[in-house]
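Researcher: Structure prediction, please.
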Amino acid sequence: MLLTQELAWAGWLSCKTRPLPGATGEKLGIDPSLAGDLDALLQDAVRTRQTESVGALVVRRGKVFYRGVAGSARVDTVWDLASVSKVVTATAVMQLLERRTKGLTLETSVSRHLRWTDVPDKRAITVEQLLLHTSGLHSVVWRGAETDGRDVILGRIQRSRLRAAPGARFRYSDIGYILLGELVGKVSGAGLDGQLRRRLFQPLGMCDTGYNPARQRRGRLVSHWPEGGKEGQVYDPLAARLGGVAGHAGLYSTLDDLARLGQALLNGGALEGHRVLSRASVEQMTRGHRLPASRSRRGLGWQLNLRQVGSTRQLSRRAFGHGGYTGSNLWIDPQHELVLVLLTNRTRLTPLPSPLPLRARFHGLVLGAIERETRRPVHTGLDRLVRTRFRALAGRKVGLITNRTAVDRRGRWIVDLLARAPRVRLKVLFVPEHGLAAKVDRHVRDSALRRGGRQLPVYSLFGNRRRPTPATLKGVDTLVFDVAAVGARYYTYLATMGWAMEEAARRRIRFVVLDRPNPIGGSVQGPLATDRTPTSTNYHPLPVRYGMTVGELARMYNRERRIGVRLKVLRLSGWRRTSLFPELGVPWVNPSPNIRSWRQALLYSGVGLLEGTNLAVGRGTDAPFMVVGAPWIDGPALAREVNATRLKGVRAVSASFTPRSSRYRGEPCRGVRLLLTDPRALDAPALGVALALALHKRHPDRWETKRLGRLVRHPPTVQAILAGRQLKEVLPLWRRGIARFQRTRRRYLLY
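Model: Predicted structure follows.
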């Protein structure tokens, strides 16, 4: 006779979930603008019918950075978790294994406790094989009529034939986790739901998690049924026929409850003084267990990210997580100290959308916006100068070209360091565009600064004066340049350096560059400028992304432009050309008022190409160069056109914004927000051209292109845009120029 566990239903916990504490992006090492990106991502997911409703939560270092919803969801909405239930079941199994309850081990045959599985082909199936999906069981059995109950379903499992011998191969199996749920209930004596409630949900304060949602919570449910109704009935057909309580599916929960579970596992099995698993058990669950007949590995209940492919590839190799059919996702990344929760009800839409693109964009946005721990931190030229006790400037009378971006690893400003440096006479300061604080968005005036008991004159190099004059250089024998650039050709700091080098050469003044990393990496992208006439936004013909440091550029300028200055570059250490800013371990200081993060710097190298036209590019908003719009733009249509190009690393979503300053000040603008889903993969200048082509196609009479060439500086590209060519036809126009530049560049690279 078939033996079944009794439902030990005693309702949900009566407490109220206490959310994890929150913190700002600055405190958590997260670009604050990520919150706006995530809001836009969720709204776009609903607008483009990737799901009807969605919720997301981001925890870093134990603190909530982001909690957001779209569609009909609320932050306390209760969701059907589908197969995310499996990792909860696996946790309950590990608790029993840890205590060796009734002698249970990974090697225990399940038939020892579930006598109804003591049949010839299933007798040898072990707990470990069920956890790893290597039991040989089918994925599912026939669900039958809705009136088929628990005994009927378990009977079908008992009679089902194995697809392979136990332990012979991997096959994802709901049936296997149904057996694990039965095992937990039988061994614990409390039923699966009772064991979870007592040993997991209550200790962790997961007050909104359980099976068969209690009546008082049904008003917070989001429906997963396309036709509506069926409040509180689990969407999974096998779980429904098992009475709503099953090891493979059936759990309901909220964003905050799943965050608490994820954080407990990230903490090694404990949260707020309550331990639910030992560290050893968590490690055993989440390390890679080799799968038979495969090079792949899997955790005990958890999917791992060892191959780093697909929708989780941007997470670290230590990440583990699980998804569910309804669109539920919980991923934990110990290396980056992240818990990522994404919940949807995609099942209400026809045709059924895949959950993977949204998950990939969610993960990509978060991973691209966080600071990362680095084992090989970069040391700048200023760090080297400090470490050598200012030897390179000993006995020198120094004129310093700088702004607030020039800080060492400890955040100390170069002006303060040189003012106190032994045997260095700091005579005068020169400042580029945006002023000494890098906060002024207009021409900069001369001023003065008191340091070291002396009044230092501060001369502007962006206004009526663009280069040092004999009067401003009086008494100076060494010019030092330490300013952080952003990696785009048309950033005026590059011209400031070039003109200062020319003046230093004329007066036989030594020129020292304290090198800094290129914050957007060493990629070379975009059209090579054809105009050789120096301007503040085009001092020397470069591609839009030139992939060099300012020290390397100085070497190129000196020789290619025959400047002939006595040049010394204090080199970086630890920098790789493949590195992006979060990997450097270098403090970020805004280089200008409208570039407030390295992600904005990266987008600037594409969106900035359009600044000569009648567009708002985010100046005067909280997202400079992350939004593009105008009062006359059709945002959804523009987003569709840009996304149709299938550019890697970015997604355009419809957006509205009102600039507080700059173009269209105070006017509501419609357009797109640009979401950096994979910064390393992005060709930013190609994105700029994709936007231009879409604008020309959709709004040829409203988009003013007379000054488009001012920053593009490549007539064939401008002509192709105005001719309405496709992006795939424009990009080849850059290849010869890039190849020529690459050959020249090699002579000046230092790293």
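Model: The longest helix spans residues 85-99.
Researcher: Thanks, that helps.
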